[in-house]
Amino acid sequence: MKYAYYISCINESLSMEADTSMNLWTKDLGIELVPLTSGTCCGGSNLDFTSPDQFLAVNGRNIALAEKMGLDMITSCNTCLLGLRHAKHILDTQPEKKEMVNEIIKEEGLEYTGKSEVKHLLWVLIDDYGLDKLAEKITNPLTEYKFAAFYGCHILRPSTLMGGHDDPYRPHTLEDLVRRLGGNVVEFESRNKCCGFHTLLVAEDESIKLSGSAIDEAISAGADFIVTPCPLCHMALDAYQKEALARVQSSGKMRILHLSQIVGLALGYSEKQLGLNKHVVV
Amino acid sequence: MDEKKDIYFKIFRFNPEADTKPFYDDFKISVEKGVTILRAINYIKDHVDSTLSYRFYCQAGICGSCSMRINGVSKLACTTQVWDELPNCKEVDVITIEPMNNFEIIRDMVVEYTPVISKLEKYISWVTPRIKQEDLGKKEHLIPEAEFKVYDAATDCILCGACYSECSMMTSSREYISPLALLKAFRMVKDSRDTRSQDRMKVLNEDHGMWDCTHCYRCVQACVKNIPIMDAIQGVRNEAFLRGMKNSEGYRHAYAFTQDIKSTGRLKESTIAVRTKGIFGSVSMLPFALKMMSRNRMPHFFVKTIPGIKYVKKIFQKLK
After folding, report:
1. What's the complex ipTM?
2. Does position B1 have pLDDT exceeding 70, yes or no?
3. Rounded-to-integer distance, Cα B155 and Cα B218, Å
4. A49/B234 touch (CB, cutoff 8 Å), yes or no
C-alpha cells in the first residue's frame, strides 16, 4: 500500500507529534507514505474566498503532484481533507475550471485529471487496510480506557463532499476504530459538533465556548481521553482547555489524543515515543 | 393492505407561564406508511391532546413554519416522513420531537422568531432599487442570466430557521449574525438592482458579523432546500476582498494565508496571530505561546520554501 502523503501545515510545526506517531506505525503495517514535499498549504478554508480561482489552481496542483506519482493522496487533517476534496469536486464537475488550472500547471509538467483520490488517514485504515487486519497487529489492547470520539466538522460535512463515509448526524467510524483497538467508547453527543478552531483568532470567546462544552461533556461522561482525527480540533481542545472549561463554568482535565496516537498505543508504542508528553494537558 | 404500525412520539412540552421546567410527553399512535411527521402530530393534537402547540401552514414545504427538531435534527415536519425517521430513532420506533435550538420558547415547539426578523433588518436584507420610487412599476431593471445564476440557489431560502437552529456559533452567541442572514446578505450584495451594498457590507464587517462563521457546515447539512449556504458566506467574504475592506481581523487572517502560500508555499504559523490581531491584539495570545513553549512546541520562524515555488507564484500572477 503506497500513498502520496499531503503534509498539513500544523502537523509539520505545532503538532508534529501527530505525524511522528503516524510515521512509527505506518511502516509496521506496510503502508508507505511518500511525502508531497512540493505541496502547498491548502488555504485553510480561507483561500476559497480570498480567490476562488487561486484556490482551485493551488489545490488542483497539489492533487496533480500525487497524480504524477500515480498515487492516491492521504491527509491526516480534516480541513486539508475538505479543502482538497472541495477543489477536486469543482475540477471534476466543471471542465472549464479544470482547463483553466491545467493551462497554468502544465508548465511544471503537471496535469490534473481527477484520477487520484483524496482520503483521510481514518478512511484508509478502515476502507483500505481494514480493521480486522489492524486488530491482528495489536499488542497492547486499550481495554482499560474509555474514549470520547470527537470527529471534527470537516471529515463529516458537507456530506456531499465526503464520499458517504459517515452519516454526519450518526457517525460511527471513529468509534469502530476505538473498539477494534480494544478501547471503550462513551456516549458523547458532542462527537459531531464543532471545536471552534477556525474562529479562535477572530472570536475567541465564542469559539472556546464550543470546545469547552465538548470537553465538559467528555468529563461528565467519564471518558479518560477525547480522541480526534483532526490536529486543529486537537489544538482547540488541548491547548485552550483551561480557558475553555472556565468559559463554560467547568473545571477538570481531559487528555486529548490524536488518532495516530491511539493506534500507536495499541500497537505497543510508548506514550513518550508517541509524543503524549508534548500536549498541554498531560 | 397498507403498512401500519404503532409509533411512539416523545414530545417536548414547555409553557413558560405555567411550567417551572420543560418535560416530555409520550404519545402512542398507529401510523400508516406515507404519513408525514406533521400529519402525525396533527392527529395527536386533534384526537389526544389539544394543548400541543406548534406552527404550521402550507403543509407543502414552502412556508417554512413547521420547522422543529425531529430526532435531534432541525427539519420541516411537513416534508419529513415518519417511516424515514424510524432508522434515526435512538429507541426503536420512538420519534423525538423538540423545538428548534437557539430560540426562546414561547410554548412547546413554538419559538420566538423576532430575533431573526431583527437580524434581517440589521443587515438590510432587501433590495433598495436604483429605479426611482415614482418610476417603479413603469421601468424594468432586467437581471442578466449570468448574474441570477450567482444567487439563484440563495433565493430558494424560505426562512424556516433550520440553519439558525443548527448553527454552532449561534449556540455560543445569540448576537451572531446567523447563517440565514448571511445568505440573504449575499443574495442582496450580488443583486445589481440594489443600491445599499456599501452600507450592508459595513454592518457585515462589524463584530458578530461575517467573519465569525466557524465553517462547521452544520447550516449546509441542515438546509431543507439544499442551499449551499457556506458558498454564500464565503461569497460575502470574497466581496469584502473585492472591495478591499482590510480593516478586520477576519480579512487580515485570510490575507496572511494567501501571502504565505504565495511566498513560501507553507503557512508561517509563528506570526499568524500577530498578522491577524496586530501587535497589541496579540498580547492575549501570550498564555498560549507560553504553553506551547513549555512543551517545546515552537513553530518554525523561518519556513522552508517548497520546491517549485516559482510555479505557485505563477498561479497568483495569472489568476485573480
Report:
1. 0.97
2. no
3. 19
4. yes
